[in-house]
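Beta-1,3-glucosyltransferase-like, Sinocyclocheilus anshuiensis. Tokens?
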Amino acid sequence: CKYKYIFALLYVFFSVFVVDLREVVFVIQSQRNSFHVQQAENLRKDLLLQAQALQEVSNIYLFHTFIFVFHDLLTLYLAWEWFLGKPLHDEESTIIHHYAFSENPAAFEYPDFSAGWALSISLVNSLTSKIEEEPLKSDFTIDLKHEVALYIWEDGKGPRLTGVPELCTFPEHKPRAQYCATTVSSHSPVCGQPVKSDNIFVAVKTCKKFHSDRVPVVKKTWAKRASLLEYYSDYADPSIPTIDLGVPNTERGHCGKTFAILRRFLSSHVLKTDWLLIVDDDTLISLPRLQALLSCYDSSELVCLGERYGYGLGQGGYSYITGGGGMVFSREAVVQLLASGCKCYSNDAPDDMVLGMCLNALRVPVTHSPLFHQARPEDYAKEFLAHQTPISFHKHWNIDPVAVFNKWLLNDKHTEGLQKSTKEEL
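Tokens:
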């Protein structure tokens, strides 16, 4: 996000409460990958320049770790327990929110982190005491913005989200953005020339029972844009063709198959590339948009990229890239993973979670991009997707996957236009 005019707007807003910018702390959430570190540093410098222009002194702290309050957090020193942000709501109950508020999903609002969000210091103090007295117990962290809002609301004991129109996700050049404290620089990333398609090896996980329905969808939609692609199954079908890696199909978890793919990627059986993409046979993905995204990352670094979930984070757990949205690895990351001795405890173990445990043990961070999606478009708030150029969706359940691909992932006009920009809200 680009925080244009933020100091002037906040100064006017705070004056109602007799608060000035010296009583505001900005926390920029970032990630440990070098691209995100630089993005955060650029934003910090920009905020300082705006503060200097207003001759105000403001505290700006920078974090590169996975923390509880995580995205452009503005801590407001107000007397009341305020929870401010751009509100999102579900149109229908969704699996990513554990089907919460199934009778009326729109009744509960949660913040769009892309617009920034804010807590008053009194609410921060209350939450701090609450966490100290009763540590977080949730096993899985799937959609943090929704889970944070639930935690703050606490079944009606805490405040609901208050919508603030100045926290926006409009593109910064749009006329409607002139009154916004936050804007979005672009819908998708570009940091130079997109990675060439022949530098990405694509591995599709499938099995015999899905050869006749899922594989044709892959071929009809996104596979035609891949230069190097192989289908891995429990049965060698030369008509597709699929490759049998010698790992039997499992109903739950595909750890054995995924690790066989990792070993094959480093073998002489496939052409050497800098990047590996592993997807399910019911994943829908835009390879041109992925190529643009990867232009922001250094393949010589340990990069593990996709939609980040968490397990047991309140009790010293780990983050992982959820498999359905697509898992992207730099070659060096695969080398380090296999060299570590990391392996499956069973063929049907959850591959994405086992990889997360291994990366955590190696102290290799997973890198999150909200452009990857573990679920269908219907499972996300419309306003959340409105300012994205998504890279992937997952599942064929109750949808026409070809129609979904054509609507959400086929048109690459955003990707083509991104050559003019070098900034991205991630």
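Confidence is low (pLDDT under 50) at residues 1-19, 64-78, 414-426.
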